[in-house]
Amino acid sequence: MPTPTAPPSPLTPSQISDLLHLARLGSTTPLLAALSLHAKTLSTTPSSILVAAIDPDNGNTLLHMAAANGHTATINELLLLLASAVPSPSGIPSAASLNAPNASGNTPLHWAAINGHLESVKALVGAGADPARVNRAGKEAVFEAEGAGKGEVVEWLLGEGRGLEGEGEGGGAGVGVEMVGEGEAEGDGGL
């Protein structure tokens, strides 16, 4: 599988780096403010800036950074922006952005799962993240979580997660943006 390349971005490398840093820290309010400021400056929408903010070196998105570190409140806000970026009849965020692979083929769901961030996993799957998506190593998020000893995530993905070869409920994407863990304490794990 070829390494994904980020499309040309209207943002400078420094702006992308700053946005990724805010997502990594789970600094939701400053992140949303920065997205809005860049959108206003570039005469576009915050959702367009969100989609354009991809690390050109490794393909990581703002969702990757928030998911890797278990910042569910940030994830939920980014999911709302994605839902407005590419409206669909179901209200599910753009599958291309939600399931965007980085250079290793890992999606935000892979990173949330491998780091054991169950509430973030739930939010991503609830919004339509594909639990059956494989990375460049050929592993689904559940296998990465199992290898990392994240039993609670493995159990949830196999029991409640949708889209895992006949496992769980529904066998497909979520039915809308599900807000999960609004009041949870955000951890410092991940990246």
TrEMBL record:
The keyword Isomerase does not apply. GO terms for molecular function: ubiquitin-protein transferase activity. The keyword Repeat applies. Keywords: ANK repeat, Repeat. InterPro entries: Ankyrin_rpt (IPR002110), Ankyrin_rpt-contain_sf (IPR036770). Residues 163-191 are annotated as: Disordered. Residues 181-191 have a biased composition (Acidic residues). One of its GO terms (biological process) is protein K6-linked ubiquitination. ANK repeats lie at residues 58-80, 104-136. PANTHER family: ANKYRIN REPEAT DOMAIN-CONTAINING PROTEIN 39-RELATED, BRCA1-ASSOCIATED RING DOMAIN PROTEIN 1. This is Ankyrin. It comes from Imshaugia aleurites.
